[in-house]
Design brief:
The complex is a heterotrimer of chains A (about 375), B (about 500) and C (about 140). With about 375 residues, chain A is an alpha+beta fold. Chain A is about 30% helix and about 30% strand. In chain A, helix 1 (about 30-35) packs antiparallel against helix 11. Chain A is globular. Chain B has two domains: about 10-95, Alpha-Beta Plaits, CATH 3.30.70; about 135-140 and about 170-475, Alpha-Beta Barrel (TIM Barrel). Chain B starts with 8 loop residues before the first strand and ends with a strand. Chain B is about 30% helix and about 15% strand. Chain C is an alpha+beta fold and about 140 residues long. Chain C has helices spanning about 15-25, 30-35, 65-70, 95-100, 130, and strands at about 1-5, 45-50, 55, 75, 85, 105, 115, 140. Chain C folds into two domains: about 1-55 and about 115-145, 2-Layer Sandwich (Alpha-Beta Plaits), CATH 3.30.70.20; about 60-115, Alpha-Beta Plaits (2-Layer Sandwich). Classes of the chains: A alpha+beta (about 375), B alpha/beta (about 500), C alpha+beta (about 140).
Chain lengths: ~375, ~500, ~140
Amino acid sequence: MLLEGEFRNPAGCAISAIFDKTGARFSGADIIDSIAVMRDRSNGLGGGFACYGIYPDKKDLYAFHVFFTIHSARKDFEEYIARYYEIDSDEDIPTRKIPEIVDEPEIRRYFVYPKQQYIDFVKTGPDECVFRTVFAVNTEIKGAYIFSSGKNMGIFKAVGFPEDVGRFYRLEEYEGSLFTAHGRYPTNTPGWWGGAHPFGLLGLSVVHNGEISSYDANRRAMEMYGYKCTLLTDTEVITYILDYLTRKKSLTFEESAEVIAAPFWSRIDRMGEEERARATYLRDVFSAELVTGPFSIIVGFDGGVMALNDRLKLRTLAVAEKGDKVYMASEEAAIRRVCPSFDKMFYAEGGKPIVYRVKGGKQ
Amino acid sequence: MIDFNVAPFEVVRDYDKCVNCRVCERQCANEVHHYEEGFGKMISDSTKCVDCQRCVCLCPTKALKIVPNRNSFRPNANWQQKYLTEIYKQAESGGVLLSSMGNPEPFPVYFDKILINASQVTNPSIDPLREPMETRVFLGAKPQTIQRNAEGKIETKLPPRLKLSMPVMFSAMSYGSISYNAHAALARAAEKLGIYYNTGEGGLHKDFYKYSANTIVQVASGRFGVHKDYLEDGAAIEIKIGQGAKPGIGGHLPGAKIVGDVSKTRMIPEGSDAVSPAPHHDIYSIEDLRQLVYSIKEATEYKKPVIVKIAAVHNVAAIASGIARSGADIIAIDGFRGGTGAAPTRIRDNVGIPIELALGSVDQRLREENIRDNVSLVVAGSIRCSADVVKAICLGADAVYIGSASLVAMGCHLCRTCNYGKCNWGIATQRPDLVKRLNPDIAAERLINMLTGWNHEIQEMMGGMGINSIEALRGNRLMLRGVGLNERELAVLGIKHAGEV
Amino acid sequence: MKKIYVKEEWCLGCHLCEYECAYANSGVSNIVLALKDKEIDPNVKVQTDGKITFAVSCRHCDEPMCISACISGALSKDETGAVTVDKSKCVGCGSCVMVCPYGAVRITKEGTANKCQLCMNNTFGEPLCVKKCPNGAIVFEEK
């Protein structure tokens, strides 16, 4: 059977998120409870979490979470990384042995920062260094796979039901200001941990429910811009599009949402002149980044979270607020489970981004 | 002298049905039919028939049919009949054989070996009758960087572009090669549909300047009819380097067709042959092209997109790569099945490559070089139906040009004798009595009807794939699968074989 | 009222209208049976000077001279404004033929007047010359 990345594997899914607008940190226990409610939206073939604010002591360093599936890969990886990065520390990621999670690879994390010569060589900053390293490692070092590369955040994922994955990674022992979760229902059984979600690049992480019809148009555009789609999943390409738009083209998350889930021309044509010019510009210039087909995504980023539905609203996505906490999930029940009484609840409209940022954080 | 020529067709008249109305006689410019007074019946001379089907369509009692001549030379898989008849013609005339319209030979039609995807279960299909289904396309270069003003708002000025309501345009057909009425119909239809038609290399008749917002003006090697107002009138300017039907050679409109307004519009004397040189004599290299592109941009104050049209030849990807760096905004590629008003038969039937393969390699090459955003890609060379449009977009085109299909909509039956100048449908002729046969009111309506139908079909196919905007279809090769193609062909097209996941 | 108009610009002189008219008014449902070996006497006739061709039929004038001239009351305007012939009243005197400025009325072999009645009295219900004109040269419209 082909491995993930060697074919396209459509999947249905459950997604969930909890965020604190003040940036206050809370335990990862709730997110496990929330995603567990939607067990029948997953099928045990993938689950995972993106956790922000969990490494406050090393918040200026890039945290690489890495899977090693063959023995020699770790040595190759460490030699490679030592050439370009100052390595602050590295360790096995703590796990709990449970019968539900089997066949785990070697799972390690490295807190690193690019060496000055490397930054000078790349010229466009340390993020670009990490961007290049992630693609180089994931495509060139056999058996090594960086699945998380942001600062003060980390992705934890595995083959299994998401609640089991949470227990496996001892998520309740972490404290963060944003947790997102994903339960996967793939239509094939590749059994490859890297194929589980969230998918992340630098500080961006995406959990996604849907199957996008624009996939290959998006993929080929992203590959032109230097992104290598190794997993052939929607989540991967959406993450790259967001990285491209927000980091390389300096669009805001709201503007990026207008590219990805663009308003219909019929609506644009009715807008006032200035707004119409802007909307037309975004659709025309970034036509290859338009995403069609059903999706609901929750995007974690440095300092905030964004929920977005496709423009036809073909997937469900509930949002609730209680005090400074924000909850998002594919199903309302997943919110009620961890927040029985909320101040308000609403459903994301098609193509309208819902963005929350840490108060006083960057825009 | 022995007449070696065998009539390719037979006119079959059902005398039980013929009522001697003589409509066929009056309508045949080739003088095939005549009424034999003494015998009280219609007689046909099959040797003159070109199988244009005009008489068949107009016969009120449907008494006529044109069939291939059953007379047969001794069958020979190598020495097919056409090679013998062509030799007889050349042995008689000593001339170069001429043909019209696109290559009719049985080369593979790749569009017919590609199948389109549809959604099932994992992703819903979309009903275009109930949901928006967008086919609007912009053509032109994309800016490399986003500029913001002091308030942080995006500067929305874009390089010059064309806005199409659907990804189809009428390709270049000159006034001269086709009639005034055919041009009038194309211009009107383009305006009504929100797309563009193309003047071809024959200049622009003064009556059609009013359609300027929907006109692409062409600058070809002969520079016929090119002047300041002409360039300024176009919504875009196309530099024609080559044409799919006759890559590497120029054009030749015989003096007989350079009459009246055609002569005025082309700005050449009546009766003189309009000979377009094979190359542009100011373009012997890619850097020369860049200079012409910028000369035109200077002349029109950078307000109009510049299209460079080339024929699909073996190294088309490399050429396109050069053009994408020349300042051109749009590249038009014409495949080897593209039509023509006249071309040497040997060239038409043996030079160039299929548009599907050219598109497959050009789109991929431009992406590999990260210059695909510099240009839009328009492809031509036998787009026959809406499914061909969808397949071309999926392979990576931004839009397509249709030439032959638009002529067919107006009545052309592809008899491929445009070069005779006696088009019975009033399309490829300058004879006033024949030109009159094409009423632009009717022809424009038929063009509009055809493309309206195509657009509905494109939307249905998009909806089936769960795609509700045409840009999500562009370059979406995963939506295509090949059938009966070998690995090299699949690799060039960049698609998988049917049955592969 | 809706009348038949001819756009000379688009008339090809193919004479199809004449045969379609003859068929429409033949009372025979099959066009071959209607026209085969028959000499036609249509209500529309293509006139030509060798260069210009033009299909002429009754103009259905606002003040028809043919009706004024009719001695037997066979010609009249119906409720739509169309000029019609009642053959049972016609005596074949030919006065209408003499006065029609368009030459659109004639005396048939039966000895009575005949002219275009807009196909309202046959099974087609719309002027067949209009429907079958290959170039849109004959139109039936309000002006």
